[in-house]
């Protein structure tokens, strides 16, 4: 593993560590807070998901019905449109 000094900011000094597999590990206070917040959120939300054993079959039946794939496509469509607009703009703005 070798260490690459990150760009220095006024708020925090951090380093980016590159592991043997090529993964980057950021060790900054902001990243540690984000990881702690993410872990706490996942633990709190996941316990609520499995809480209601009475309603769960009815909710699953309402979500995974015959309209599921159409609703999923409509939900994901804006991401495809944004990707189709941003990708050409990214490559047009690049220096050659």
UniProtKB/TrEMBL annotation:
Q: Where are the transmembrane segments?
A: 67-92
> Which UniProt keywords are given for this protein, alphabetically ordered?
Membrane, Transmembrane, Transmembrane helix
Per its record, how is this protein called by name? Answer: Uncharacterized protein
């Amino acid at each position: 593993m070798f260490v690459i000094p990150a760009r220095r900011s006024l708020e925090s000094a951090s380093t980016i560590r590159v592991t043997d597999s090529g993964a980057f590990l950021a060790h900054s206070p902001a990243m540690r807070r984000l990881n702690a917040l993410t872990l706490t959120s996942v633990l709190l939300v996941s316990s609520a998901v499995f809480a209601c054993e009475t309603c769960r079959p009815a909710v699953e039946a309402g979500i995974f019905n015959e309209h599921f794939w159409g609703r999923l496509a409509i939900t994901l469509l804006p991401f495809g449109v944004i990707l189709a607009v941003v990708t050409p703009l990214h490559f047009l703005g690049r220096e050659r």
